Amino acid sequence: MAAGGGRSLEETPTWAVAVVCFVLVALSIIIECVIHLIEKWLTKRNRRALCEALEKIKSELMLLGFMSLLLTIGQGPISEICISKSLGNTWHPCNKKQEHSRHDIDADKEASGHRRLLAFPESSYGQRRVLAAAGYDKCAAKGKVPFVSSDGIHQLHIFIFVLAVFHVLYCITTYALGTAKMRMWKAWEMETRTSEYQFAQDPERFRFARDTSFGRRHLSFWSHSTILLWTVSFFRQFVRSVPKVDYLTLRYGFIIAHLAPQNQANFDFQQYIKRSLEEDFKVVVGISPLIWLFAVLFLLFNTHGWQSYLWLPFIPLIIILLVGTKLQVIITKMGLRIQERGEVVQGTPLVQPADDLFWFNRPRVLLYLIHFVLFQNAFQLALFVWSWYEYGFQSCFHENTKDVAIGISMG
């Protein structure tokens, strides 16, 4: 690092040090004030779940700061750990040809600086600079290589920060899209207050379950076959994931199951779903230890020869398609249970959600899968931005344009 012009603080003007410190302190204060204003605004609007999500974001920033401190303190000791060259030449993200090509380019860029340092060995620091410019380190003297070099630790530090930023941005974007999606449900909720809706849902009306709007959508010949059920549900998620008939039926089932009759008329199901989204956002915005473990595994699999660019970006796509299909299957199975209770229904079909309709009898498994998908997508884009920033577009991380297109489009 000294070869890149590493002057110590005793050789640096004090005004330059003061300017850097002032800028860092100013930016920190501004960020803290912005977070405080957002917190006050959320508290004023009684958005408790979003306030807790903001607290999680603040704790993640604190964790990143602590990780940054540990990386800075441990940079010297870690870089002085030596391993054999045979072990150090395994599991590289680039092949040998690409590594040698990049080393040649870096050597050409540093050649002029190398000669300048050799030309001024008179000062008390000249000898150390000559050694640094010549690439001297303790591991090289032993015929070994560093476990992780100082430059590598610095780049890892940047990647962790970029990954956390992209994860938070992904979660915020998902929440914004979810909120926009639910705006159309507001009109459906207002429709439940009209006399036309009350007449259509008259509890004194007797109908066949298959003749109701919900029955015509879900109770057909294909709903009794597992293969056809999953096939139809798979394609339905691309058309309209939450149609009006499903919303109104699920709303009615929820109200009957959870509210007393005197409170049913004025209940706003759309606002309840909105608050539920905020509660879920509080979960997915955090980066749990298990998620950090996945990040480590993703870095491990980003190895030349594993062709991770061909399968890693498709994991979140497959998971999210499975989740969307499963949700459609659950709604249809609730309709089948209505028919199992009797061919004739009174008023609106009464759906009864149950945990046994979900994988492992745990509805929150779907939420954890969505959390994983958000993080994996953030990882793909963070890796692209980080590698572009560190190595440029022409690097082994972007060996083929189609690989970059796959990673970004899947994200």
Automatic annotation (TrEMBL):
<feature type="transmembrane region" description="Helical">
    <location>
        <begin position="283"/>
        <end position="303"/>
    </location>
</feature>
<keyword id="KW-1133">Transmembrane helix</keyword>
<keyword id="KW-0812">Transmembrane</keyword>
<feature type="transmembrane region" description="Helical">
    <location>
        <begin position="59"/>
        <end position="78"/>
    </location>
</feature>
<dbReference type="Pfam" id="PF03094">
    <property type="entry name" value="Mlo"/>
</dbReference>
<protein>
    <recommendedName>
        <fullName>MLO-like protein</fullName>
    </recommendedName>
</protein>
<comment type="similarity">
    <text>Belongs to the MLO family.</text>
</comment>
<feature type="transmembrane region" description="Helical">
    <location>
        <begin position="156"/>
        <end position="177"/>
    </location>
</feature>
<keyword id="KW-0112">Calmodulin-binding</keyword>
<keyword id="KW-0472">Membrane</keyword>
<feature type="transmembrane region" description="Helical">
    <location>
        <begin position="309"/>
        <end position="331"/>
    </location>
</feature>
<dbReference type="InterPro" id="IPR004326">
    <property type="entry name" value="Mlo"/>
</dbReference>
<keyword id="KW-0568">Pathogenesis-related protein</keyword>
<keyword id="KW-0611">Plant defense</keyword>
<feature type="transmembrane region" description="Helical">
    <location>
        <begin position="15"/>
        <end position="38"/>
    </location>
</feature>
<feature type="transmembrane region" description="Helical">
    <location>
        <begin position="365"/>
        <end position="389"/>
    </location>
</feature>
<comment type="function">
    <text>May be involved in modulation of pathogen defense and leaf cell death.</text>
</comment>
